Inverse folding.
């Protein structure tokens, strides 16, 4: 039996370029129905803020991480989400491999943030994509970043005049934004999986709650509580959370390290209850696990509601179901198997769920 917890792994406070205190973010996470939240301020590790925050009878576990990047480099590249290192590592940012080695030596976890992050010249926003792909030692990739996707909507505009109507529309209608990860991010992930690497996928808000104004118009782009209802990471733990922060943080980060998690776009419909598992002649496996079988492996997929379902092996679609809540597939070839789900929302087909792989070996 596994226990599911939903959280967001990428958010910023006033300690970097966000616009809320840790308590504000915790309150927004509680309103959004999250179980945990990791705050990742830029190049600053904020200690002393970790723990459970309560609002009435509800609570959320807030944990401090860090988003590390080389502040001197122009243009900016190579943003890394660092969890559980327990110390400040920003001075190592100019050398990505040295930074990754230090995270590993500290028994922390590192995830490449927004591996694809296009430039938006209209707003003087540079391309912040990861470029040093020869490095190793990272646990995974942030395949879906809500704010990078929003930024990407304006990459084609060359003047503020043309972009302004679009900006205003999405500022007041943010539920129309998310469509799915950048195809290049998924292709990069699949290429790494096909090469034999174990790479855990996560998703995040990259929340800042930035206030904006245009003449008499005032708006927060985008509020924390909205973003925490959107692109999240759901973890599966073998034991339930206890309400004791030190114990629970270990369980959450252990599941992330193992890839016992999936990325869910919870705004159209809750993704709680999604499961992807395998049964073979040598036992069972869930997302992130490896399983061996000489006689085939039975893959089982379950969705919280009917949706378009796709099964991929090493990045290639090998089966699909137009509208299903459950499916079974017998895998008779080795590879990294993962699931995608899509549904219609706001008049458009949108990505809904991305599982982590189950690694099948012959």
């Amino acid at each position: 039996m596994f226990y599911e917890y939903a959280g967001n792994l990428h958010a910023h406070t006033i300690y970097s370029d966000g616009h809320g205190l840790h308590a504000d973010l915790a309150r927004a996470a509680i309103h959004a129905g999250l179980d945990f939240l990791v705050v990742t301020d830029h190049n600053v590790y904020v200690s002393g803020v970790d723990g459970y925050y309560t609002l009435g009878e509800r609570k959320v576990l807030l944990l401090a991480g860090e988003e590390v990047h080389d502040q001197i480099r122009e243009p900016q590249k190579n943003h890394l989400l660092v969890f559980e290192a327990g110390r400040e590592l920003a001075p190592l940012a100019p050398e990505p491999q040295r930074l990754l080695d230090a995270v590993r030596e500290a028994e922390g976890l590192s995830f490449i943030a927004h591996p694809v992050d296009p430039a938006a010249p209209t707003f003087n926003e540079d391309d912040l994509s990861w470029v040093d792909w020869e490095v190793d030692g990272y646990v995974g990739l942030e395949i879906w970043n809500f704010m990078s996707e929003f930024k990407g909507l304006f990459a084609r505009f060359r003047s503020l005049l043309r972009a302004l109507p679009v900006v205003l529309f999405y500022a007041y209608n943010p539920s129309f934004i998310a469509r799915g990860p950048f195809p290049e991010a998924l292709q990069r992930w699949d290429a790494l999986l096909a090469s034999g690497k174990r790479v855990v996928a996560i998703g995040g808000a990259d929340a800042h709650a930035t206030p904006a104004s245009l003449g008499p118009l005032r708006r927060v782009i985008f509020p924390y509580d909205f973003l925490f209802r959107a692109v999240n990471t759901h973890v599966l733990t073998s034991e339930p959370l206890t309400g004791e922060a030190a114990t629970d943080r270990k369980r959450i980060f252990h599941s992330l390290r193992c890839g016992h998690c999936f990325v869910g776009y919870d705004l159209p419909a809750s993704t709680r209850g999604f499961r992807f598992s395998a049964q073979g002649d040598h036992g069972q496996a869930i997302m992130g696990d490896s399983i061996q079988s000489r006689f085939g492996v039975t893959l089982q997929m379950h969705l919280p509601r009917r949706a378009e379902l796709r099964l991929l092996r090493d990045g290639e679609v090998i089966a699909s179901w137009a509208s299903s809540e459950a499916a079974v597939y017998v895998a008779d070839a080795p590879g990294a198997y993962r699931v995608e789900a899509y549904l219609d929302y706001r008049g458009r087909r949108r990505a809904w769920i991305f599982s982590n792989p189950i690694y099948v070996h012959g």
In short: Helices lie at 22-32, 96-105, 146-152, 160-172, 183-194, 224-227, 245-258.
